[in-house]
Amino acid sequence: MVALLVVGSIAALLAFALLAGGCAAVAVDRTVRIRSESERPVFVGIAREADVAEYLDGVEHAVVSEIGREPRYSQRRGAHPRARPWSASAARAGEQTFEWEPEDGSWNAVVMNADGSRGVAADLSIGAELDPLIWIGVGLLVGGGLLTAAAAVAITAGIRRGSR
Length: 164
Known about the structure:
This protein folds into two domains: 2-28 and 132-162; 31-129, no CATH class. It has three helices and six strands; from the N terminus they run αβαβββββα. It has helices at 2-28, 49-56, 132-162, and strands spanning 31-48, 61-66, 72-76, 88-100, 107-113, 123-129. The strands form two sheets. Strands 1, 4, 5 and 6 form a four-stranded antiparallel beta sheet that branches. The protein has a two-stranded antiparallel sheet with strand order 2-3.
């Protein structure tokens, strides 16, 4: 009875450590990559959602409303853009790859002609880099979940034997 409670308690502490480590590994392992290819110089930038909304307020632009093989856009009417609020950016013709380490908060990506003119034409791909750390994190989470279940069984069995 006491042995089951001790083993269950130790297993619960180890499970907590595995779960905490797994959460940390999964949360830390994030890199956003945007690749663009264009004939004209295009600007690719990432900024806080509120800053992008303020920047684009009253500016003619299109918002991607559906991502896929054939993306859909929602047009917004307005004037020429103003000063840029970007946390990170890149601007040139041809192929460019832009990487950004996400921070807390809501962020938006913007693609526009580098000179702010109309008629953006660029092939884009957006993705996230999944380093091996993500799989270590997932393994720790699975192991922690299994150890939590084993700890619960041991503690429950120890309590039931003790109450007889």
